[in-house]
Amino acid sequence: MNRKRAQGRFVFFCIAPAAILVTLFVFIPTINVFRMSLYRMGGITNRKTFVGLNNFKSLFNDTNFLQAMQNTIAIIVLVTICTIIFAVLFAAILSRSNVKGKNFFRVIFYIPNILSIVVIAGIFGAIYNPSTGLLNTFLEAIGLDFLTQQWMGNQRIVLYSIIFALVWQAIGYYMVMYMASMAAIPEDLYEAASLDGASEMKIFFQVTLPLIWSNIRTTLTFYIISTINLSFQFVQIMSNGGPNGHSEVVLNYMYKQAYGASVYGYGMAIGVVIFVFSFALAAIVNKITDREVLEF
Amino acid sequence: MKKDVKVSGIILKIVIYIALIAMTISIIVPVAWVFMASFKRNAEFIGKGVNPWALPEQLQYQNYITAFIDAEIGKFFLNSVIVTALALVLLLLFALPASYALSRFEFRGKKILNAAFMAGLFVNISYIVVPIFLMLSGANRALGVDFFLDNRFILALVYAASSLSFSIYLLSSYFKTLPKGFEEAAYIDGCGYLKTMVKIMIPMAKPSILTVILFQFLSFWNEYIIAFTLMDEHSTLAVGLKNLMAVERTATNYGIMYAGLVIVMIPVLVLYVCLQKQLTKGMTLGGLKG
Fold first, then answer.
1. CATH number of A54-288
2. What ipTM score was computed for the predicted complex, to two decimals?
3. Which of B124, B159, B217, B252 should be substituted to probe chain A, the one whose Cβ sees the most A Cβ atoms within 10 Å?
4. How far is A263 from A34, CA to CA, in rounded Å?
5. Are residues B141 and B211 in the same domain?
């Protein structure tokens, strides 16, 4: 009996500090996002008035918000598609084919993932600089002057410049992940396929891809969550939404409203919308990509 | 027929190599270029007819000295070291006992606690950074102090809290794999619960602890948005660099800016070169990104 109580005390003192810390800095702030979204608050006076769902109503008449939402969705879709294609292809190449220097390529491709978002922003600043940038001067050097651009200044292009940077930093991470699940596919499946005379292409589409499908599905949720997050930090540093809102993303808009303009209630309403949106999107994607799981 | 297959195989191979090399170039060239640019004089960046691909005329290591002292990168570097180290210590101090208790003991409410910590995995810090800021500034106002914001210890505490869920998830799944016999033997030898945990069980979890340290080192060192929101004078390197980038770009003092970028990159790159095997292996173990 005494031992039981001693054990209970031990368990309590082990868990309590962690539980308190998470409650204080994760759960309470999360609840606050939802609670504050129902108030009009902020500004110099910092007065709080309950306004119900009014913040949400004005949100859907706010063209800046709608544009940010549109941009965010475009970024999620394009980044996910491009990253998956490159990451799966490179993973297949590096784990299946007999190219030389596999290890070298794997090590290099993962580098963008370990760099701080600030460093990546700095690097792309150097690449996209209109007059002395690496990209424009390279295009001029190979005689493609007509392709040079104001990569961050042109309203029609800025979003794609940001998407490119996001894909660039994500490929290596997901590639390593897909390589791990490809490594789990038993060798005899490939042997059987090539004995049947299947080409490398066919093996890729009929063996590799179906067998790592459940892994790809899991990563779809990661793509949604991390793209929303990374696009925010990237935009915040690189363009802050400009020019003219054409690279604005929702989380950055939220941050500007809440932290910059101190319109906390309205900012938090944006946060709630993105929160719900990302979960709904993840659920929908999860549902429509549901296939019969192939076992090996 | 046979020849066709062979030819298409060679073409495929060429395409594969081109793709691999293009991706490699797109990573190595910009990173190497930043290293090179950090040694250039300012005149080599601006003006007509400047070629950004040219090698530096001389090694302007002065850029580093200016960045470190005048642009206060040295101060930010020290802050980053302090915050990262403190956050790692705090994280392990909180996460290890919790994950040990959650994985090795049976007690009432265990399921709920596990679920609660798991739920923390789904909260993205970008959403809650403003409420955290408001909470801390509210605490300042309520107590009439200036303590909670721009405080390196508080920042480290927030870092530790934000990665607790993930670390507990990773550590407790490792603790679960350890055989039960060790604790029983320790109890019979007269070891108490605390001693058993500290002296016997935690040392056995070393591989998973190293994974946590490695990943969280990278994420704390590189973290930007929390530090940007909560810190001011005592900011970390990432924020200092962002401010430097903003200032230097308008003052067009590029050499110093690139020197700053290199200073942020070097610890991470060195660590990566030494530990890249563990890093990519550990990633599939955790399978999650913060």
1. 1.10.3720.10
2. 0.89
3. B124
4. 15
5. yes
